[in-house]
Amino acid sequence: MSAKEPNDDHGHDHHDHAHVSDQESLVPVAPTEHGYWKSLKELEGQASYQLDPAAARKERGAPEERVIDPMHRRNFFQLMGASMALAGVSACRYEKEEIVPLARRPEDQTPGVTQQYATAFDLGGVGHALLATSFEGRPIKLDGNPEHPFASGGAVPGTQRHAGATTFAQAAILHLYDPDRSQNPAMNGKGASIEAFRAALPDIKKNLATTRILSEATSSPTVAYLRAKLLEANPGLQWHEYEPISWDNEREGTRKAFNQPMRPIARLDKAETIVTIDCDLFVEHPAAMKYSRDYARSRRMNGSLGIGKMNRLWSVESTFTNTGAMADHRLALRSELGLPFVMALDAMLGGGGAPNSEFLKEKKVSEYVKVLGEELRANRGKAVVVAGRRQSADVHAIVAKINAAIGAPGATLDYYVDSEANRRPHVESIGTLAKDLAGGRVQQLIILGGNPVYDAPADLDFAAAMGRATTSVHLHEYLNETSKKASWHVPRAHFLESWGDARTWDGTITVAQPLLAPMYGGLSSIEMLSLLLGEPKVGDVLVQEAHAKLGVTASWRQSVHDGFVPNTQLSAATTAVQSTSAPQLTPSQLGGSKRANGDLEVVFHYSSFSYDGRYANNAWLQETPDFLTKVTWDNYALVGPETATTLGLENDTMIKVKVEGREIELPCYTIPGQARFSIGLVLGGGRTAAGRVGGEDDHTVGFDTNKVRTTAGFDIALKATVTGGGRKFELASVQEHWDIRSGIIPSVNRDGLQARLPELIKETTAKTLAENKNYQAEEPSGFFTDPKRAGNADGPTRAAGLSLFKEKDYNGHRWGMTIDLNTCTGCNSCMVACQSENNVPVVGKAEIFNNREMHWIRIDRYFKGSPDEPQVVHQPVGCQQCEQAPCEQVCPVGATQHSDEGLNDMSYNRCIGTRYCANNCPYKVRKFNFFDWNKDVRDAKNRVRRLLFNPDVTVRSRGVMEKCTFCVQRIQNGKIKAKAQIRSGQRPGTVQGAIPDGEIQTACQDACPTESITFGDLSDTTSRVAKLYDDNRSYSLLAELYTKPRNRFLSRVRNPNPAMSSSAGASAAQEGGH
Amino acid sequence: MSAATMEGDGAAEHHEEAGKAREAFRGVTRDVAWVAEAPKPHKAWLGALGISVTMLAIGVYSIYVLVTTGIGVWGNSNTVGWAWDITNFVWWIGIGHAGTLISAVLFLTRQTWRVSINRAAEAMTIFAVMCALLFPLLHTGRPWFAWWMIPHPNDMGMWPQFRSPLMWDVFAVSTYATTSILFWYMGLVPDLATFRDRFAAKGDKLKAIIYGTLSLGWRGSARQWHRYERAYLILAGLATPLVFSVHSVVSFDFATSQLPGWHTTIFPPYFVAGAIFSGFAMVLTLMLPLRHLFNLQHIIKESHIEAMCKIMLATGMMVGLAYGTELFIAWYSGNLYEKFAFANRAFGPFWWAYFAMVSCNVLVPQAFWSKKIRQSPVIIFVLCIFINIGMWFERFVIIATSLARSFLPANWSYYTPTRFDVGLFVGTLGLFFTLFLLFFRYVPVIAMSEVKGAMPEAHAGGKKDKH
Predict the structure, then answer these.
(1) CA B45 to CA A894: how far, in whole Å?
(2) How far is B121 from chain A (nearest CA, A)?
(3) Alpha helix (H) residue ranges in A47-98
(4) Nearest CB to A890: which of B71, B166, B337?
(5) In terms of C-beta density within 10 A (0-12 exposed, 13-18 middle, 19 or more buried), how is residue A992 classed?
(6) Among A2, B262, B282, B434, which is most buried by a count of CB atoms within 10 Å?
(7) pLDDT tens digits, one per residue of A268-303
(8) CA B234 remoteness from chain centre
(9) E runs forming strands in A124-237
(10) Is-above-0.90 flag for pTM?
């Protein structure tokens, strides 16, 4: 094993134990053989325990809570002993792996020091390379793998090797410790043992010829390998694949264009003009992390495009996405109009026929098409068009044609050959399956992951169809809606508990290694497939076999260590676009942008709370506000202000959405920038078997929009009717709603907001920056001469200081941070990273209503301009670490103090909770523990969650104030590491000396996919943060208060096309003056 | 020349008046002491006590839930860190101010009409301060550590942070409480001795012993009177600056912060004027019904009530001027955040609170221009209730609306109280009235010795007292 492979029996033990206890308290299990044991005696085959849990408890005399406590001391020692004994006891677990007792400390483990292991996970058929941080055998954090060629994109000179991670990837760690995870197999809804399932296996295997396997989309080469083997061995067996959020349209579109499915991947770092058609590049796209980073690099004035150049982003979309919010020119257009729009563009560039659509004649649209077309033509070889997953195959085919016409392939766009050319589209595949099931042609159904009962198209009535199969097996981490309908449910191991692999979007094979043994037992998908094959093998053996079959020659140990197999991208292709016939347009595509009720379009969106519903039980995600609406804990229908007025829909009331005779009721959220007469429905709510957090039968979170999602209207449904006037339903938003009401009160608010916005969010244009060398985002305030050097003893500032208090000298490190508003896409990665790193509690929906959310970093979102064509800006706000901190001087007990390095430190022990500091904080970044937010973790049932806590960060009690610390624990660890290295002679320098720039990264910085957050030592004048402090875009928030924040923002830069007259971008030219 | 000294010498110098005067003085004693001497309390008193104790019980329950569960039971949020808690604190502290003003400032300025109400007003001060003190203690997240605000030597080297206005509050309010209690008790001593003597004469030994202990061996000798007079004068001198300093310091909690709407130099005088305004309103709220119930009209005279109405009219206009000045300065400053803070106060989501404040505090006292109204106890009582409400809203408007809409619009929110917010406030009202009712029944509610000193009979030639 390589040095970085996990070797953590220690960790295994805790978790085995947790599992054992739950067995006792839940269901009787047959003793021995199955791998579960209750005592050493049983383990060694000497005694079999009474199965009555009450009796067992009585016998042991332990209170209930103790039995479940995974960390109880006595049990811990018992298990320590057991793990030693395990070496000599055979067949006590399901797949046996080498287990080494912790008699000696493992070579590379130092107690109290975390380790990092490369791993991967698969989301909707796309692999993501991850780096898991493990503390003494328990993983506590997930980040992107900076070594991975696709995830990190390689190092650019002057930057750190860096890989962001989506909120979903980061929050997956919470699932590992989710006490609601399925812990036992179930047969017909009743608890069963894995033995019983094994006993049933021969029968299942016998019938494989009349069996269908329905898998969630997976990119795993091992699954593909086992699938091929299985299909070969069992003629008649059929494989289906289904994913509710899928990029199949792009496959089919490229199939149309190239006669074979391709995977286009843009090189955004090379593109000067980027056009998105109903596509979110930064969160939803499978290559989102790469796209975010590349986009940010070409967005910087001195980035990948060269000095003084930056990209221009054009977005055409129905609902605001992170991408649209970043766009220089955004056109709000119904999604179904994507086709005529690209046809019009094609007519200008690729020689296709222009459609005769009414809406194209509207001035706003015609100008947009014209200016965009001209820019694309002028930027040949430096532009790229990307269409989103909702757009039809026709759109993707035409986009391929446009890209060819503007010389994108090879310059700003690469095509890769899809490795599975013959795979049927997901919707078609599940449609066939449902039909066959309903027709009684399927005897057995084996479902690997996924939740089709919840998320299959409504017209298939999958639940009923599934009931027609004699036997159905569902492998999943949770006992979800589908499991409840299946005759067998088998718990699946979490990806951090099992071996596996995945391909990132470019095809690079990425190895997933486990960090701990399955806490609750459970099989991985590949282990299940190997069981079906009749040759059960350990996960890593299967993965190695599959790789060998693929011809991988790289060292396995190296691949596990690095987390990927080098040079395994899909093969690039250079096929020319075949001529395509012009698609037929529907009457609504030919019409104008106004529609009557009954003829509206409904567009389905992924949910930032739960993706497609699968993360519903993840409290971190549920409480991470949506990037735009800032709503938590619910999904809703998005309606534009004009549409709302026309149809009589009101914010925070229930509305009825009717599509093809199916109807749901859900809350309405009026949001500016939503295309007219397009209703956005967010997926992923209304789960009835997600768990205690995400919804169970008696309480659901959000609304099940799948009920109106059908095969025909899978991504965009037409002919929808919406009726308002329902009961009041308030959405828990962390920011106030966009108030569309008129009257004096809303107008006072709106005016107040709009007046101060230019002070809070500084904006400029690329043109200004290029022409005005004296541009400064921050006006000289007169209070102090040089804001950037403020507080530096060497600087000229002190003489000018007008502060009543003595200015502090900083002679050592001076920590500082900058956040670039020009590249921040508002993707929320920093928020989840902070939550994970700093043990930030979740407060729940009711407390969100009370404005008591605890996030240490939040992302403020502001609208600007008209409700029809608003601009959106994001501003991540954590503690500004003011040098003259208003919070410090009002604390009566001195619980918040300034450190010698300029940090505003908080001592929780000393805090008595007067909240005066929060009142006096102009940024309102201080968060108060109004209740004991960690109470539920002490609940016996949830104690496993305590394993997730970062041991370097205090878990706060009730009644104390907390806030962002600039990840002071990481700073201290970095300093300790540097000192140790200096002392041991590994690094020249002095103990007090500078720490190499970039060595200490805050959690938010680590997670930020666009590298918008820079942290470092200001006393090191060569550090990146010091240089960014001197950038002319640098400004501090509310500088006139003389708080002298150590966090500075870099102003947003807009890059409008001067030819555009009315667009949002042009209005941004009100900059300059600052 | 103090009133009490006059009494000491009066009898000797004016023999011919002596009998008449003695009779008059006895009348005062009788009129005051009968409340304590009545074997059974008044039915109205019992009823009021029942209501007050019930309110107090609600408060005790609210405190229990608060301390065991957390500040989260209140409506406060991360945006609105202080709301009812500090509003109530400032309101109660303000109410206390009239008592100090009446007993100290009016004493030093020889306003003899104060004697009819000073005892009750001082008691009101003490009880109001007790209610007020509950809030700084209970509003902390961990009240069991609130003692860390008191400087005390300890081996951990922990020390309070004296730049914090909350620390100034600790000292200002504790000084205020101490001085007020001493002043009040000092003044009580001769009257407690009177009670002792009367109970002893009646043979009620228990009460005689209790009042005897409390009266600290008072015998009414000339030397005792002399020392009493000196001490009273010194305490009055000490208490006088407190009238201005305590509420100034309380206003620093806001004025020294940088929140728009709080960060205002006008706060100290504005708060003091408001405090006196609300204090007199509360004095009248308490005294008018008691005066009626216990037939004290000849002691608490109409002229006294009129004087108080005039003070309310004056201070109410000062408060109104402050409101206007705030608005003017917000506009004149040209400061974006200041301007918004005041526009938001008047027309933002808390507009109702602002208009409640302005109408109760500025418009209502205008009625006192009319002599007729100044002489009509029922109307005065009603108006005083409005003023009390208005002054509560003033603090609420300052605290909650400023916090709810501060610098960054992303944090803007709204505040709604919970039943525990209301419960605790009701509880302090209960505590206040309970204490006041007990005071009324068991302690001489009117400073008998001082009243006697201010009576015409106590003066040479029996000249009529102006008041």
Answers:
(1) 48
(2) 31
(3) 53-60, 64-68, 73-86
(4) B166
(5) exposed
(6) B282
(7) 888 999 999 999 999 889 998 889 988 988 898 888
(8) 21
(9) 126-135, 138-144, 186-187, 190-191, 211-216
(10) no
